[in-house]
# Entry
Amino acid sequence: MAIGLSNAFIQLFDAEVKQAYQAKAQLVGATRQRKGVEGEVVKFPKVGKGAATLRVPQTDVTPLNVDFSQVTATLEDWNAAEYSDIFMQQKVNFDERQELVQVLSNAIGRRQDQLIIDALTASGTSLAVTNDIGGTDTNLNVDKLREAKKLMDKNNVPPQDRHMVIHANSLASLLGDQEATSVDYNSIKALVSGEINTYLGFKFHVLGDRTEGGLAIDGSNDRTIWAFHKDAVGYAEGIAPRTEINYVPEKTSYLVNTILSATAVAIDAEGIVQLTCRES
# Structure
């Protein structure tokens, strides 16, 4: 345990990290979650479809024979750590502590988001919206949103809890689409706030460039973004984000470490749509 650092302060620091990380991790709440997983493997159940049969008097009923399966993922362990000598025998610089809180919590929050993005990428979904929807080599536009909605509607994906994770460049393009911003088409005053929270049933999550990888872009400037239903993607935690503070004599510093053991996996590819957007 940290030398000269009270338990009250350690608890305060940990609480601040959790508060900050919850504000920065954007995608966890958009998934089907499992918390407190024991062991290194987590399984999400997947139930197939069935069709009702016509009843014939005095005959046996016909079972649906619904297919039950499981999607399996392995937990990954992550650290966000930094040495610090700002804690000096019960004396704490408040501003520096807050900066360290933000650095560690943001790093863990971005990693949680990346686990989910990687799961979407590995989903192998056959539902795709090309960059030629709404014009040749286009960025994000309303036509692409309509196509993504159509693909989900066709697969009977519930209209509630639909999400879309897009890049900041995608948002800039969408804000240039008159149909998305004009009050003649909708009541969202997008140009006033500079953002679009929901549209065509999708809740938007806007990400910028990220050192963890973020939303992939290729050499042709084609950016991959994703639309998905909450139950189509699973996120599981064995260890929720937690902060440890220990004194390291060899470093004459405190080691502040935020840890996470988690994973994400695509449960049902029929609820995931891949959109390709050409950025200029």
